[in-house]
Design brief:
Layout: H1 2-8, H2 16-30, E1 39-40, H3 43-52, E2 57-63, E3 68-73, H4 75-82, E4 88-89, E5 104-108, H5 112-125, E6 131-135, H6 140-166, E7 182-184, H7 201-215, H8 217-221, E8 230-234, H9 241-251, E9 256-260, H10 271-285, E10 289-294, H11 297-300, H12 314-326, E11 335-341, H13 349-352, E12 359-362, H14 368-378, H15 390-395, H16 402-418, H17 426-438, H18 449-467, E13 475-479, E14 489-492, H19 502-523, H20 531-546, H21 575-602, H22 604-617, E15 619-621, H23 622-629, H24 637-648
Parallel strand pairs: 1-5, 2-6, 8-11, 8-12, 9-10, 10-11
Antiparallel strand pairs: 1-4, 2-3, 3-5, 7-9, 13-14, 13-15
Helix pairs in contact: 2-6, 10-12, 14-16, 16-17, 18-19, 18-22, 19-20, 19-21, 20-21
Length: 666
């Protein structure tokens, strides 16, 4: 029974104090008669008002203990009195000036007896015929006002100090310097383990060593080894850096603090440094533990790279405090720092030195075998049929990150559900890949016959030239159906190479220029459809000259800056060298333009047949190009696998890999 009564006992809510203060103030307002303030005048003015209009005073109240008289006037007299600018209210209404005219005037008298004589005189003269009341005023209203104001101020201060002591986000303005780190421990939150992280074999080995040290520290310290104080996860977006950190939190049976780099930065000066100190204070109290800082580049950007040189802004103060804390605690404190970023090139060098982040773990885009493992993880809860080939899906998604693959699986399931299927089929995955990379088909977009013909000629030019190049990417699909911002697109499957030979870059430029060349030769005019092609070709040509040293006139020179500090406002070469670079880039573009022209002239008949077929069917596949031009002289490993898969497909529909070489952004 005692427990039940204790549960039923209402809990004190601090906001009750505010309700009580509001009630007191409202009571004080209502106590003020009609809600209007008495207009205070001197005795002469008071007497003149009484005599100005006989019978205009309704009644008079005499406050004997204060020798104050208040007279209540009728509306007519009140309007006349209100025009007198010398009369002002003695006390303003609490909630602002009343909208109607005050009909109460007050004055100070010498004594109540003398005032009685004056009242008798007024009655004899017929000036005043009302009633006279005698009362004693109390100071309750003033006392309530001052008491209410004092209590309200005390309540406000208590609320602020209460927030200061609560800490964390939302604890009041005084808790702004508290750390916003989220704490994961072994007893709460859904765990993610290394089994949930597909691929990333090398990264998991290095991370697993840190986890093993926390579990078995004596095994390492007995040999004199020291665990790295910090590890930095570096890689492109979506590759699984944060997921890997979550797996560390699930595998290591120690407290895990998670925080974003942007959580340190605040508009108030000194807040970031205060949060850093509070974070490490909490971490040391729960050591051994792991602190994970996601997107650390938000606070760890290199100092001194801004226009206002020497400025000591909030971000730099936060970084300085972070540097101090990371290299300030002892080796045996058991606090290990993990951080993730995809912009390691802009981080401050002091942050990357040994003793802070001893290791940089590179989390790269998944390879072929890694992509297969990732597909297996994300397809655990997806109902698929026998037509889905994980090997084929893995080969069709080069350059996809783990997040991209997860999106493909989800989109495929949504597409299958939209078509009322009982299971997700291979074609659903193909459509999902096209949808993610190319955009949604826009068959409702109005395109004239002239535009359709121009797009078909353009895309057929890409397909024809790419088919006859040594390093041309395998053609998979060409379409003139608008998708996303493109009116037409050519799908290729680039070979996954670690290095690119010079001829491969030239072949890519030649293939990109083929669409513009086909328009020039077979249509007699050029249009804006080659914008994306020209942009990409120009970037490749400039990279060949300025980065890779592949120019004939300017060989073996690179102006690429790996430090990320750039060259500021000056170029690392002279105006003459800039002119030479521009000339070399133009020569490369012109040479590949002419090369594409020669190929299209040589295979003009096949190009026209391909363009006509594209206009009729809107979509053509690899087997259509092979039927027209014959088998490719150079066949890549990936292309051979795709051809085998197409032969085994009973539906005789070619597979559709992602459009990484998408063309014609109109």
């Amino acid at each position: 029974m005692a427990d039940n009564n204790q549960r039923k006992k209402p809990k004190f809510n601090f906001y009750w104090m505010y309700g009580l203060m509001l009630l007191i103030l409202l009571m004080f307002f209502w106590m003020n008669e009609d809600g209007t303030a008495a207009q205070e005048v001197n005795w002469t003015k008071f007497e003149n008002i009484v005599k100005s209009r006989p019978g205009g005073i309704k009644y008079i109240t005499v406050y004997t203990n204060k020798n104050v008289v208040e007279a209540v006037m009728d509306d007519t007299l009140a309007q006349e009195v209100s025009k007198d600018k010398e009369i002002v209210p003695a006390n303003q209404p609490m909630f602002g000036q009343s909208s109607r005219t005050s009909n109460v005037i007050s004055t100070q008298i010498s004594s109540a007896d003398k005032f009685d004589d004056k009242v008798e005189q007024w009655k004899t003269e017929g000036i005043f015929t009302g009633e006279v009341k005698y009362e004693k005023t109390s100071d309750y209203s003033s006392m309530i006002w001052y008491l209410g104001s004092t209590v309200l101020f005390i309540a406000f201060m208590l609320f602020m100090f209460r927030g200061m002591g609560s800490g964390g986000a939302g604890g009041g303005i005084f808790s702004v310097g508290k750390s916003k780190a989220r704490l994961f421990d072994k007893d709460n939150d859904k765990k993610v383990t290394f089994k949930d992280v597909a691929g990333l074999a090398e990264a998991k080995i290095e991370i697993a060593e840190i986890v093993d040290f926390l579990k078995n520290p004596k095994h390492y310290t007995a040999l004199g080894g020291k665990i790295p104080k910090g590890a930095l996860l570096v890689g492109p977006p979506g590759t699984g850096k944060t997921l890997l950190a979550k797996a560390v939190a699930g595998e290591a049976d120690v407290p895990f603090f998670s925080m974003s780099g942007s959580d340190f930065v605040e508009m108030f000066v000194g807040v970031g440094a205060s949060r850093v100190r509070d974070l490490f204070r909490q971490a040391k109290e729960k050591a051994p533990c792991i602190v994970f800082i996601d997107e650390i580049d938000a606070v760890g950007r290199a100092r001194g790279n801004k226009a206002n040189m020497g400025g000591n802004d909030e971000r730099e103060s936060t970084l300085n405090q972070l540097l101090t804390e990371m290299d300030g605690f002892g080796t045996n404190s058991g606090v290990i720092i993990l951080a993730a970023t995809n912009r390691a090139d802009i981080l401050d060098k002091a942050l990357l030195r040994a003793g802070r982040f001893d290791r940089q773990i590179y989390v790269e885009l998944p390879e072929l075998s890694d992509r297969k493992e990732i597909f297996q993880v994300h397809l655990r809860d997806v109902k698929i049929d026998g037509s889905v080939d994980l090997d084929l899906l893995s080969r069709q998604t080069p350059g996809f990150s783990g997040a991209d693959i997860a999106n493909v699986c989800n989109e495929a399931a949504l597409i299958a559900a939209r078509h009322k299927k009982q299971a997700v089929q291979r074609q659903d995955f193909m459509d999902a890949i096209d949808r993610i990379v190319g955009g949604l088909e826009k068959r409702s977009k109005v395109i004239t016959d002239e535009e359709r013909h121009s797009i078909a000629v353009h895309e057929a030019g890409h397909a024809t030239v790419s088919w006859h190049l040594r390093y041309g990417d395998p053609l998979i699909k060409v379409t003139i159906v608008p998708r996303g911002k493109a009116l037409g697109a050519a799908w290729y499957l680039p070979e996954e190479r670690q290095i690119e030979p010079k001829q491969a870059l030239l072949d890519k430029i030649c293939s990109l220029m083929a669409g513009r060349v086909a328009e020039d030769i077979f249509l007699g005019f050029v249009d804006t459809g080659a914008l994306n092609d020209l942009e990409r070709a120009t970037k490749i040509a400039y990279a060949m000259v300025t980065y890779y040293g592949m120019s004939d006139k300017l060989p073996n020179i690179s102006y690429y800056d790996t430090s990320g500090e750039s060259y500021g406002f000056t170029k690392p070469y002279s105006e003459n060298r800039a002119k030479a670079i521009d000339e070399e880039v133009q020569n490369i573009i012109d040479g590949q333009y002419e090369r594409a022209r020669q190929i299209l002239i040589q295979y003009e008949r096949g190009h026209h047949e391909l363009a006509d077929l594209l206009q009729q069917r809107e979509v053509i596949y690899t087997e259509d190009a092979e039927r027209i031009f014959g088998p490719r002289q150079w066949q890549s490993r990936t292309e051979a696998i795709l051809n085998d898969a197409a032969v085994q497909d009973d539906s005789n529909v070619s597979v559709t890999p992602p459009p990484f070489e998408q063309e014609d952004n109109q």
